[in-house]
């Protein structure tokens, strides 16, 4: 799915048949409050690869092979923390499970709009860009 600004990224269907081994996320912290949703999510699979899911400046959904970045300080705008135990989101419920299906959706002018990752029990996690933010729903 080609985004005009960010390119095609990684083919997320490569996750099919792989086990979700670890999940890392980044969160914006400002005035002691954590953002409602993560900024980025990295899925580590049984093949030893890391898939980053995040949003682009043009409201596309970016899916790429990338390792987690380091936490960083943004001065008066807060900081970004990165880790495995920073907050709850739908992917955490599927640790140790195999990915059964991946479906991605796109618009020609915008690129990838959302992604659905399915697990053996029929549950799905949907990742999309909502008002410029990453939204993960089950």
Task: Walk me through what this model shows.
The model has no long low-confidence stretch (mean pLDDT 89). The relative contact order is 0.26. The strands form 2 sheets. Strands 1, 2, 3, 4, 5, 6 and 7 form a 7-stranded antiparallel β-sheet that branches. The protein is an all-beta fold and 138 residues long. The protein has one domain. Helices cover 0% and strands 46% of the residues. Strand 6 and strand 7 form a beta hairpin.
List the helices and strands and how they pair.
Layout: E1 20-30, E2 33-34, E3 40-45, E4 50-55, E5 61-65, E6 72-73, E7 79-83, E8 101-107, E9 111-118, E10 124-130, E11 133-137
Question: What are the key terms here?
Answer:
seven-stranded antiparallel β-sheet
Largest pleated sheet: 7 strands, antiparallel
Rg to the nearest angstrom?
15 Å
Question: What are the low-pLDDT stretches, counting only 5+ consecutive residues below 50?
Answer: none
Number of helices: 0
Domain count: 1
- State the total count of DSSP E strands: 11
Terminal-residue CA separation: 22 Å
Compressed to H and E, one letter per element, the order equals EEEEEEEEEEE
Percent of sequence in beta strands: over 45%
Which percent bin holds the helix content? under 10%
């Amino acid at each position: 799915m080609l985004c005009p600004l960010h390119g095609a990224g990684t083919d997320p269907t490569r996750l099919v048949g792989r086990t979700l081994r670890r999940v890392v996320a980044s969160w914006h912290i400002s005035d002691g409050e954590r953002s409602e949703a993560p900024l980025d999510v990295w899925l580590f699979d049984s093949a030893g690869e890391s898939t980053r899911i995040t949003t682009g400046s043009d409201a596309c959904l970016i899916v790429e092979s990338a390792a987690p970045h380091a936490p960083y300080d943004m001065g008066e705008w807060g900081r970004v923390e990165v880790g495995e135990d920073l907050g709850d989101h739908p992917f955490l419920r599927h640790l140790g499970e195999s990915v059964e299906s991946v479906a991605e959706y796109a618009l020609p002018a915008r690129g990838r709009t959302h992604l659905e990752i399915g697990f053996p029990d029929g549950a799905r996690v949907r990742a999309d860009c909502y008002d410029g933010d990453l939204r993960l729903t089950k």
